[in-house]
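User: Please predict the structure of the protein below. I'd like the answer in structure-token form so I can feed it into my own downstream comparison script.

Assistant: Understood. Taking the following sequence of 494 residues as input:
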Amino acid sequence: MPLLPPLRRDQLDALDNESLITLIVSMQEQMSTMAAEIQSLRDQLAKNSSNSGKPPSSDGYAKPRPKSLRVKGKRKSGGQPGHPGQTLERVANPDHVESHRAASCPHCATDLTAISLHSVEKRQVFDVPPTRFEVTEHQAEVKSCPGCGGSVKGTFPPGVTRPTQYGPRVKAMAVYLNNYQLIPLARICELFSDLYGQAPSESLIVSASKEVVDRITPSLAAIREQLTASSVIHCDETGLRVEGFLNWLHAAGTQTLTWYAVHPTRGQAAMREVGILPKFRGRAVHDGWASYFKFDQCLHALCNVHHLRELKFVAENYAQAWAVEMVDLLFEIKDEVEAAPPDWASLPRERLAHYHRRYDALLKCGFAANPPPAVPPPRRPGRKTQSPPKNLLDRLHKDRVETLAFMGDFRVPFDNNLAERDVRMMKVKQKISGTFRTRQGAQTFCAIRSYLSTAPKQGQGVLRAIQDALLGKPFMPLVWPPESGPSIVRVSRA
């Protein structure tokens, strides 16, 4: 809306009543528009990683001071009583023993060689041995058969196919450093050179990664199958640059499984091609991205950490008491769920009803504090123009079942931190290496990372899991503890 031109007093005196009313209405509309724009700019400036979905990297150098709306607990910081700690323990059978004799007295120079000792003070030093490549030469005998005159050669072990080659442990370490520790190819070669005095080529690391992908195909198929049969899965997605363009990494996981896939798009079509959600019949935990709700054959649950951040923003920038009280309520429910007996599957019915009433009462207070504006703001294309508190209230009302799902089914967590932890390492990969130069490279990385992220959840050593894969024996994921899918009860989202 263009700004109204300033008018002098004589110009205003010359206007009739109808013209004055028209002018006042236009000024009100202009002021309303400007106030909305100013508030929007203030909201943008006030948002950071602690009160919105913005990543910490967007905070710049002005990192927000940590501030929680939850009442500080009484426990002191640091390790708590009963914490096992990380003390280096002495071993019973050391690899080497060095004796340091007391040959003479440092005070009077008396010779102590013939004096019998009465005790030994022991100290152990843990260190890595000198490292170098170990070369094993395989010799296959060649003989002539006296019976038929033919030439007979001994059989080399499986995998020994060239005059010189790197063994499976070298390949496994290279794949481990690249795909798990996220070290770029050139730096892996430098690391090998510094540690062992000899380095494989970058092409060998790439070919070893492709070899691992070929060997872990059965494991990946089992991960997909078990994810779709799980009772609860965690889902998230994040931007990923491939071949210079923005793509999307889609992640799905449980306490025992992880799956990654890369796709050019973020929405429903991509999720269908990834193939986890279309077959899933349990409960999907996510951040509320609208595309997840398109899969209505399963139940949904929302991450309440996202809600806490948004409630913090409303409390800090709009000074609305209902937001603070809603934070307290969510934490109160969470504490009661965590304190429930281990054989409970849900809070008792009367407690569920109690918390639902309090939740709805706070929403009512929130809507009362955010009435429709007296002068409706001008319509903009796209989303309906509303204040952040009103947007949050609408979502908390519409998604109240999904927001409070964690108290009615203890298999459902309070947050979606599991998926966010799985996604976080992909962002670390981008920060270290930048982007993926090829789509094949991105797909290879996602496949290997699915296998490696699942390994520690299954109690498997990551490096050993790679070695086993290269030897043709990749681990097969086990469902532990056994899961059974929930019965699907249709709940209206109106």
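That's the full token string. Residues 168-282+433-480 form one domain.
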